[in-house]
Task: structure prediction
Amino acid sequence: MSIGPKTALLEEYALVGQALSSPARLALLEQLAQGERGVEGLADKTGLTLANCSQHLQQLRRAGLVTSRRAGKAVIYRLTDTKTLELMDLLRVLAERNLDQVAQILRGLSGGADAPEPVSRVDLAARMADGAVTILDVRPADEFAAGHIPGALNRTLTELGALLPDLAPDAEIVAYCRGPYCIYAHQAVAALRQRGFNARRLEGGLPEWRADGFAVVSNPQPGCC
Amino acid sequence: MSIGPKTALLEEYALVGQALSSPARLALLEQLAQGERGVEGLADKTGLTLANCSQHLQQLRRAGLVTSRRAGKAVIYRLTDTKTLELMDLLRVLAERNLDQVAQILRGLSGGADAPEPVSRVDLAARMADGAVTILDVRPADEFAAGHIPGALNRTLTELGALLPDLAPDAEIVAYCRGPYCIYAHQAVAALRQRGFNARRLEGGLPEWRADGFAVVSNPQPGCC
DNA sequence: TTATCATTCAAGAAATCACTTGAATGTCTA
DNA sequence: TAGACATTCAAGTGATTTCTTGAATGATAA
Result:
């Protein structure tokens, strides 16, 4: 007995939903949103074992969200579709608006109650032309090297303290990191504001910036990617 | 040992993904997208048993996608957020673009290869002003009664044949149904085109039409909803 | 060819999920 | 207040999922 087309379609759509139903896979998608990567790199970044990571990636592939290609011995995965970014962001928006837990965690990250609205990508691009804004990339060095906003400084949260003396007290700072699920920028902004700096988050992260067609530069390194 | 905020957030986002990971829940969301409904009505429409339906609804509630209120003995569920429509549609778009199975099923529904592009909602609204278009609502009568596009004819797929003699051979027909996951409109358009009519689908269904702020009329019936 | 390396496959254990059944809760009506 | 009704809870079963471990595959390099 065969099932109707309606049920068949819902099952396929549910396959995509299933891909989004595990924290591990969301973390993988977050990484892949920044650019293509090999299995081992992804396993390192997400803390998954190699075999487990490979299995999650195959599940993402079955859902059509990622594709892979071979590069020598390695298999490189990447997002199939930039629309996946929208899907991930919508997931975040809905969770933020409708789940108390999420709102609470985000408030906690921003320190106090005075988290300012994020800067839109268009606004940042416009202000970059004036040169009057300091852009802070809060991701690990290897991800920065693989691609970042032109002119951005790269400091992780732990390195942030050393940067403070070099900043003009009234400098306008915009921090960003990996994208919708990344919390580094939240934390960096909270730390900077606590010290009186005028810091705000960029809306979205590098993947969204790139998807909007804004410039990205990279310092490819020999041992990397 | 407590988990970090990053993991906690991903787990919450995954909760929303989990809500989308079962065909039964997607069917419930499709129904709820059309308007609020009681548990029994939803169970009937989706073919779930009452208890099972209730459990799925509670899972949707835990994910923040639906809310409920009491109305006498009944509990009425509804979507929390119209953004959920966007999420559902994005799920469909990604599945359609990246899963061969889906593309194949949809081709099958449209009969041959000559499925025309859907009519956008703005276009339909404009053409309605001219009065030169026949709008066909392919949903069951009770859903039609609960809300439909002004001036639309209500015919299910099985009733469609009886309508044909009354249609002008060159009439422009636009068919719609429940929304992104509904296949009635596909099937109606295929049947009409096979008989030489100029029929097209509306992009999205009633929920999207309503969410865009276009007019919806209803014929509330005593025994219904 | 052989050795090596990155990834995938296969099998199993523990946890979770979907669905069923029957009882419990809470609200209205007589 | 008792009875009827809609929904939810609780417990159990079979299926699925997640993660681990160790072996198998496929591609490169010597």
About this structure: Residues 221-225 of chain A have pLDDT under 50 and may be disordered. Chain A touches chain B through 48 residues (CB under 8 Å).
